[in-house]
Design a protein that fits this description.
By secondary structure, the chain is α+β, with helices and mostly antiparallel strands. It is 25% helix and 24% strand. Helix 9 (466-472) packs across helix 10. It comes from Algoriphagus formosus. InterPro entries: AB_hydrolase_fold, Esterase-like, Mycobacterial_A85_antigen. This is Esterase.
Length: 578
């Protein structure tokens, strides 16, 4: 009964805040683009910036463009789509509330494909097209040329979608960097169609000249990489000046700085006394996100098994990896930080250490700023006489520029109610939730009202709350994780991720039989994504993932590698195969 009342309340609230618009908006599709359109989501985007395309300006902060979204199915060629003027919008929820004025508008269609999955569900989702599941840049998606209008709230508006996003270009192999793509039998069976995994592979100096040498594997987890990043065999571009500005870090000349760091890494990589190992960055974009979170999931399928038992052995066989758990290490930040810890916990024998920087929530009592087990609402803290919004994003001084409701309502407008936005809260929900009766992820909370579903929360706890899983299973997991867990986070993480790290540290520091024997460290006033160096700024250390944990990895290898492993240059000599 309580759940029914909540649904009724949500419908009432949504209806009450949206008075009908008197506008008539018609979106046509150019004839040459109609054949490949069947199902999808139509976005209508308003911008006050007349210089940039509206599709690139939707964000969580106050400078965001305005977007409205509606799903459509069974499009028939030759038809126009009448945009539903009562569609939900962000940041203004109702089209009728858009102030009068001059805007640049754009229509955009994200196409959905049909998947007949092995679990018996048929779902319609936007498939990655090689770009990393970025809707505004995804090949095959179509859009209109931006159009400047005067909006009075009673206008008739006609837009023609006549542009299509072209295919992405595949990177080419070089002396050191190779690119692979394999069909995953596990994922193909789950999704009911051919599904692929890819990786960018950085090979050690002397790889071709030493065919009997085998190498440890470093798995650098993170968001979808278009190519192997941070490795450059030529000096920085001399034409680059100091005038390019990084708004994220507040410094000038950052592009040149990144090129210099990449070139410095190359110089280290080829030096005679540098350790020899393989680094991979994985491509595992999927219908829900640019990344699978590298674990098995009811909604995404067995990505954890596919990566660990299909992709990684394939890479090790092709590029002479040692191929044993003691010679594999995991690291990454943010999404990659969560993955590094999760993969180590889920596959404790297959990897020999993780270095998890600024990880996504690893204890759901601090799921950003929400305790999904005790709080009833994700967006509000309730008191007897008032409600307070929960913060979603802050800077290093604690100044908040987005609330959780803002971040979730943006995804609701972009992707609707079935976790199809391709963004952060939707992918967490897709990975962590059980499958609903409709085949889509069960919501952890009502995306409009924020009301939390305790049954879904309990499922999350038992399957993906990494601190809970380690604590629950420490008697068997502990001996396998001893000395392998390293976590780093800024104490002013923009997304409050440090709170979950505090809770996890409390558990780890109290472990016995065995004591966890790893490391948890914090960066003072450091934002997302601090990764463990207390002496250098984040904008430098984020470029050094592939070298910054080597001393700690060396200690793990000293403790666990077999006697025939050469600790001087990190190679294992094997007899040449006939």
């Amino acid at each position: 009964m309580k759940n029914l009342l909540l649904v009724i309340l949500a419908v009432f609230l949504l209806a009450s805040c949206q008075s009908p618009s008197n506008s008539n908006i018609s979106v046509s599709i150019a004839s040459e683009l109609q054949e490949d359109v069947k199902d999808g989501r139509l976005l209508l985007i308003f911008s006050t910036n007349h210089e940039a395309e509206p599709r690139f300006g939707i964000s969580d902060n106050v400078r965001t463009n305005q977007v409205f979204g509606m799903d459509f199915e069974n499009y028939q060629s030759g038809e126009s789509i009448n945009f539903d003027t009562e569609s939900f919008g962000y940041p203004i929820e109702s089209l009728s509330e858009i102030p009068k004025g001059e805007y640049t508008v754009q229509a955009f269609i994200q196409k959905h494909e049909t998947f007949v999955r092995s679990d018996g569900h048929t779902v319609k989702l936007p498939m990655d097209q090689g770009e990393g599941r970025q809707w505004s840049r995804a090949p095959k998606n179509i859009y209109s040329i931006p159009k400047k209008i005067n909006w009075d709230g009673n206008s008739s508006l006609e837009l023609e979608i006549d542009q299509i996003i072209p295919p992405v270009s595949e990177p080419e192999d070089t002396e050191f960097i190779k690119h692979i793509k394999i069909k995953s039998e596990l994922l193909s069976e789950f999704w009911g169609r051919d599904m692929y995994l890819g990786a960018h592979v950085l090979l050690p100096e002397g790889f071709d000249e030493n065919p009997n040498q085998y190498y440890p594997l470093m798995v650098f987890h993170g968001h979808f990489p278009s190519d192997f990043g941070g490795f450059r065999t030529i000096p920085p571009d001399p034409e680059l000046g100091e005038d390019d500005y990084s708004a994220r870090f507040g410094i000038f000349g950052y592009e040149k700085m990144q090129q210099q760091e990449a070139y410095d890494f190359y110089q280290q990589w080829i030096s005679p006394d540098f350790k020899r190992y393989i680094v991979i960055e994985i491509q595992h974009a999927n219908p829900y996100y640019d990344d699978s979170y590298a674990v098995n999931s009811e909604n995404l399928g067995p990505y954890g098994d596919a990566i660990t038992y299909e992709l990684i052995p394939h890479i090790e066989e092709q590029f002479r990896g040692i191929g044993e758990g003691w010679a594999r290490f995991l690291y990454g930040g943010s999404t990659g930080g969560w993955e590094a810890l999760a993969v180590q916990v889920k596959y404790p024998d297959e990897y020999n250490g993780c270095f998890a920087a600024c990880p996504d929530p690893i204890d759901f009592r601090a799921y950003t700023s929400v305790n999904i087990y005790e709080d009833e609402n994700a967006y509000y803290q309730d008191g007897h006489f008032r409600k307070t919004l929960r913060p979603g994003h802050r800077n290093y001084l604690g100044h908040v520029d987005a609330m959780l409701i803002d971040m979730n309502h943006r995804e609701l407008a972009l992707g609707g109610t079935k976790s199809r936005s391709g963004d952060q809260f939707d992918i967490w929900q897709a990975v962590f939730s059980p499958v609903g009766e409709d085949g889509y992820p069960m919501p952890i909370w009502d995306r409009y009202t924020g009301e939390i579903d305790p049954e879904v929360a309990e499922y999350w706890k038992e399957n993906y709350d990494l601190r809970h899983i380690m604590e629950r299973d420490w008697s068997t997991l502990g001996p396998k994780l001893e000395g392998k867990v390293h976590i780093y986070c800024g104490d002013m993480d923009n997304y409050y991720l440090n709170n979950a790290v505090y809770l996890t540290e409390d558990f780890l520091e109290n472990t016995e039989n065995p004591y966890y024997g790893g490391e948890v460290a914090y960066g003072d006033r450091a934002e997302h994504c601090w990764n463990g160096d207390p002496d250098l700024p984040n904008y430098i250390t984020r470029l050094r993932y592939n070298t910054m944990y080597l001393d700690k990895i060396q200690k793990r290898l000293e403790a666990s590698a077999p006697s025939n492993f050469n600790l001087n240059n990190w190679t294992l000599i094997k007899n040449k195969k006939s």
